[in-house]
């Protein structure tokens, strides 16, 4: 039995930030595998399963547009937040947005649409009540109804992703007829290890970006 899924996602804008360009933000040409995983996890995720993105189909021409965005240029110290949660004492813990607002230029993708082809596998945290068929049914049911734990986004939270389940056996929308070398792309963060960034050489082949499986020699640090 196959536990693969396909999800159509679209939006007006997308910003999949290149980590080497953090000040003036520039998007990758195509959605990254980690961004695709985040959309799947927004619909259904449990510690018992792990999503593995296999392909990203690009359905619309790759177009960039420059915009200016307001960002908050500071973060609350995580340690101070943890202390406040443990003790219940907020004290002077606060972040005034008006005092930390910054305007930055961004090069974003315009009018994007993708098909995410992915599968999941069970993890060692799966309990006796967990089984793959149950999780597959849960994902399909939630995606079919448009249900999600939080609004999935196209790279950043200000660019929401609209999604629709592609039913098993149904045809996927056609991808663009374009092939190109996309260079090294962010694969994911090594959450199980030292939290370093992982990369792979991305190739768009007739509109399809094929993602190497976890542990592949194609994945580099």
TrEMBL record:
Record-linked Pfam families: Cas_Cas5d
Enzyme Commission identifier(s): 3.1.-.-
Keyword Nuclease: yes
Keywords attached to this entry: Antiviral defense, Endonuclease, Hydrolase, Nuclease, RNA-binding
InterPro entries documented for this protein: CRISPR-assoc_prot_Cas5, CRISPR-assoc_prot_Cas5_N, CRISPR-assoc_prot_Cas5d
Record bears the keyword Zinc-finger: no
Family classification: Belongs to the CRISPR-associated protein Cas5 family. Subtype I-C/Dvulg subfamily.
Protein task: CRISPR (clustered regularly interspaced short palindromic repeat) is an adaptive immune system that provides protection against mobile genetic elements (viruses, transposable elements and conjugative plasmids). CRISPR clusters contain spacers, sequences complementary to antecedent mobile elements, and target invading nucleic acids. CRISPR clusters are transcribed and processed into CRISPR RNA (crRNA).
Name by which UniProt lists this protein: pre-crRNA processing endonuclease
